[in-house]
Amino acid sequence: MINECVEHEILPPDFNVEMAGFMVIMFSNPKNLLSRKGYDNTLIDIVIDTIKQGQTSNTRVRKICAVSKATATRYLDQLEGNILSRIGETGRGTYYIIKGLTEGSNKV
Questions:
Q1: Domain ranges in the chain?
Q2: How far apart are CA 29 and CA 96, in angstroms?
Q3: Residue 3 and residue 71: Cα distance in Å, rounded?
Q4: Contact at 8 Å (CB) between 88 and 94?
Q5: Measured between alpha carbons, how far is 107 from 13 in angstroms, rounded to an integer?
Q6: Which H/E stretch holds residue 96?
């Protein structure tokens, strides 16, 4: 299911286990979902690019948004935890994937 979401460039489903059972929430349009949650267009563009590319990095954000390293870091900090998961500690080699995806389910 997650790989199909990546292939069709939509956010992965949200899986919830509650007392009444198991719930899967699908998001068909990431732009509408993210704008309803209060994210601005720049952050939405980063998320959509990450869905398409399978991952992002500070360098990639700097290129697609034409911003400084510090601004790219702030954008990624805003998205980390809620939308993106960081892979790696800090520095070179650190990248971000859509939260809920595993490294093996990234688009190739």
A1: 2-105
A2: 20
A3: 31
A4: yes
A5: 16
A6: strand 95-98
Q: Per-residue confidence of the chain (108 residues) as pLDDT tens digits?
A: 777 776 776 777 777 787 778 888 776 677 877 888 889 999 999 999 998 888 999 999 999 999 999 999 999 999 998 889 999 887 788 999 988 655 544 443
Q: One-letter amino acid identity for 90? A: T
Q: Hey, is 43 helix, strand or coil?
A: helix
pTM of the model: 0.71
Rounded to whole angstroms, how far apart are CA atoms 49 and 45? 6
Token code pair at residue 25: 């929430």
Which CATH code for domain 2-105?
A: 1.10.10.10
CA angle 58, 76, 97 (to 5 degrees): 80
